[in-house]
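task queued by scheduler; priority normal; single chain, no ligands, no partner chains; default sampling; output format set to structure tokens
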Amino acid sequence: MKKRLISGILLALIFIGFYFLDSKYFIILTTLLSILMYKEIISLKKYPLPVIILGLISIVSIIIFNQNIYDTILKVKYYPLIFTFVSLLIPTLIPKYQDNYLTSDAFSLSAMIIFIGLSLCSFTLFNTYNKPILLYLVSCVIFNDIFAFLIGSKFGKTKYSKISPNKSLEGNIAGISFGLVFGFLTYYFLVSKERVIITIIITLLLNIACQIGDLLFSKIKREHNIKDFSNLIPGHGGILDRFDSLLLTTLVYALIIAVI
């Protein structure tokens, strides 16, 4: 618990430091995060070296070449996505890799790269065009995570999923509830005091996305028989273990504001 607390404080301080810097430094930080996340993904399976290099180019290009609010939120540039799929599928036809690198591997790796890339790209765009939105998203995730853990560990009795057997329905409800309250307050005081009902509904959806994101990555870990994606962050595991909920929450919010 002590390691988890210290690591959490250090991560928060790093985020706050970059939050107040110029957006180009935030893009650098996000790109570095994407590389670390990518490293954790490719550690789940032995991929051919050319595939690893092409995947790295893909995830970085998705972030770098979509640094315009109208590209990512309204219409994503397709060429980084096309490059990702084509470049990762072609090696499945090379005789040297045919037995160990399947088309299913290529599609799953491409999907993870695009998922992480677009999410972190959206995160950098919010930092560039509307910084308080970042705090809004982070507050939903942090308070959801904190209270789901605290209430679940003390009062959680109703287990609901074999994917993550330590999670409880009581903890999830507490996480969503407190995430909703603190997320709404962050948006109300830092972003906008208008459209209160819509803000509450959106914040509720984001907090549900927090829980789903956590479960999705727990499913990936269970499928690969691992506890954490890495041991990079003491008490937390890997980068993906710490950012799993935020990745999906950011994408859901980008989708919502593109639609409404």
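post-processing summary
- The chain has a mean pLDDT of 87.
- The longest helix spans residues 196-223.
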